[in-house]
Design brief:
By secondary structure, the chain is mainly alpha-helical. The protein is built from 7 helices and 3 strands; from the N terminus they run ααβββααααα. It has a 3-stranded mixed sheet. The chain is elongated. The structure holds zinc ion.
């Protein structure tokens, strides 16, 4: 119970808290209009143009907080609630995504590394747990089980590495957004503080995802070593 609590319940609570924070911050600042009336689209467009990124298109995408920058297609996609909205939250989110386009244009190392890892992680996150479970089951009957489980865990651990590399990418995009907005003259001081609050809450969700991912690896690692010592005793 105690190890399970440590590895599962705590990350779960952190995750729920992060979800609550982003939802409440987003809700609060979605209801506050920027005094200049600038929309998410306009702010992101200006920010991109200021960095000579006129070729980066901005598209609308369905969903809530589904906003993202696609480095392969060089397209910035803003959700309905951000694209046309002139709320403080919308401008903050839109400029954060433009921050990712800045990173891409400058070949910002953590972003390059993160993009390169995506295909490997996509496969690893499916293959790793399967190999791990097969290895664990096999280990009670054969010597090959433990090494298979170990390989599975290592492949699976790439998802944790990925979630850690995501952190500087996200924090840095928010820094770029705040810096540009502070100099743009589009937002007043209190509005900039609102942007910071929304982006900080959004960053929390990435921190909690990283905590969950690492805990998962640690938990499965502890299962593996427990199984190993069971085998050694026999
Ligand atoms: Zn981001």
């Amino acid at each position: 119970m105690s190890t399970y609590f440590l590895y599962a319940i705590i990350p779960l609570l952190v995750g729920l808290f992060a979800q609550y924070k982003i939802q409440s911050a987003y809700k609060k600042y979605s209801g506050i209009r920027t005094q200049t009336g600038v929309t998410g689209y306009e702010a992101a467009r200006k920010m991109l143009d200021a960095h000579n990124l006129r070729s980066v298109q901005i598209e609308k995408v369905g969903g809530v907080l589904s906003d993202h920058y696609d480095p392969r297609k060089k397209v910035l996609r803003l959700s309905e609630g951000v694209y046309n909205s002139n709320s403080v939250a919308a401008v903050g989110v839109a400029c954060h995504e433009a921050g990712h386009a800045y990173q891409d244009a400058e070949a910002y190392k953590p972003l390059v590394l993160r993009s390169a890892m995506i295909p490997i992680v996509n496969t690893g996150s499916k293959l790793g747990p399967i190999l791990f479970m097969i290895g664990l089951v096999l280990s009670s009957m054969s010597d090959i089980g433990l090494p298979v489980a170990q390989i599975g865990l290592i492949i699976f651990a790439l998802t944790a590495v990925f979630s850690l590399i995501t952190l500087p990418v996200e924090f840095n995009a928010s820094e770029r957004a705040k810096e540009w907005l502070a100099n743009s003259g589009y937002l007043y001081k209190e509005e900039l503080d609102g942007v910071s609050e929304v982006l900080r809450a959004a960053a929390m969700t990435y921190v909690s995802a990283a905590i969950q991912s690492i805990s998962n690896i640690l938990y499965n690692g502890s299962r593996l070593s427990a199984q190993r010592s069971r085998r050694n005793r026999r």
